[in-house]
Design a protein that fits this description.
2 helices; elongated
């Protein structure tokens, strides 16, 4: 092989290496953006459900589902920016919905707070979105990484529970989050 052929082979090898590295970098940048959006959304759901719990504790009941965002903002417990998921492209004020069945309930009367959704990613963003299981964002807004290999294997949404727990739910799991509260038969 002559000097010119070796030079050409090296240049082709270098060009191939640059192309592979640029492709890997592009994947890294996208994965980092998705991860950041997931973290921001999880923090926002956690903040909202914590403020919902605080509101319910202070007022002895959850806010009215048709005005819940307005009531939390009026109580000066949270800022308006927290209600917007970075993966929601709509122009609506809130990307998150409140579980409609919680409206007006005393949190002390709920028997299943660890399994009861209080806030979720809604399919119908708006000023005061509320609903139930049929209102969850579909398709889901978030992808979860597989720990080995960095592949994005499944989709899911973020949920906040009445107990204060945060949970990202895979859409392919048979168990679905609970939207119906189990209540004490006698008030306290």
């Amino acid at each position: 092989m002559g000097a010119t052929a070796r030079k050409r082979t090296r240049l082709l090898g270098l060009a191939l290496l640059v192309r592979v590295l640029s492709g890997a970098y592009a994947l890294y940048v996208k994965a980092r953006q998705v991860y950041r959006a997931d973290v921001v959304c999880a923090q926002q759901v956690e903040n909202i459900q914590g403020v919902l719990a605080m509101y319910a504790g202070d007022w002895g009941r959850f806010p009215a589902p048709d005005h819940w965002v307005d009531q939390l903002l009026a109580a000066d417990l949270i800022s308006v920016g927290v209600f917007k998921c970075p993966e929601d492209a709509s122009g609506a004020r809130s990307s998150y919905g409140m579980n409609r069945s919680l409206g007006g309930l005393d949190p002390r009367d709920i028997l299943n707070p660890d399994h009861l959704v209080s806030v979720y990613e809604t399919a119908r963003p708006g000023d005061n979105p509320s609903g139930g299981e049929d209102d969850v964002a579909a398709p889901p807004r978030h992808y979860s990484p597989e720990s080995s290999g960095g592949m994005w294997l499944y989709k899911g949404n973020m949920y906040g529970y009445a107990s204060g727990k945060l949970f990202g739910m895979r859409v392919d799991l048979p168990r679905r989050p609970t939207f119906e509260p189990r209540l004490r038969s006698e008030p306290q």
